[in-house]
Amino acid sequence: MAHFSRRTAAAALVALPFCWTGARAQQAAARRATPRQTEGPFYPVTLPQDADADLLRNGQVNYAHGQPAWVEGVVSDLEGRPVAGAQVEIWQCDHQGRYHHPGDGGRADPDFQGFGRVTVGSDGRYRFRTIKPVPYSGRTPHIHVKVKLARRELLTTQLYVEGDPNNERDFLWRNLGTDRTLVTVPFRAGSDGLQASFPIVVAA
Description:
Layout: H1 2-30, E1 57-58, E2 61-62, E3 68-76, E4 87-91, E5 115-119, E6 125-131, E7 142-149, E8 152-161, H2 171-174, E9 184-185, E10 188-190, E11 193-197, E12 200-201
Parallel strand pairs: 3-11, 3-12, 8-9
Antiparallel strand pairs: 1-2, 3-6, 4-5, 4-7, 7-8, 10-11
């Protein structure tokens, strides 16, 4: 019986490196880069004077339309390390589906900031106060997201609303295939508005 136990223990020790390597490989494989998406035609031609993380307060004016929402997450690399110093930008249409852009007729609500930018710290965390995105002609609700590091553009993508009935009809969302799960998140009710968690993984 003792001989069997020693042999079993030896076999287990031999298998340990394989198991550890396999687990590590599975963990690494689970970290997929956030898929790239088109920038679209409405990236601001001129950035607003107020370009901070609160899109519901444009200068001294408060935006009182739409469903207030917090969008937050961590910017990390493929190894799971926070990308300190990364700059995260978001831009989106107002509650009526209009962008602050001459190509969209310049008809966006002036009270809505429409664009925000933050630089993440050592923990990689970012947070924006905005509205839950709304649909407009030809597109499902989405928020545009861009990540930069120094002078490098690491990622441009779009954030979608989980469960929105317009998703299936949106060609950009459909073309993502299985990667759509990486950019489609729920907007859940919170104490001070909707909450959406959007982790961003980049090849930094």
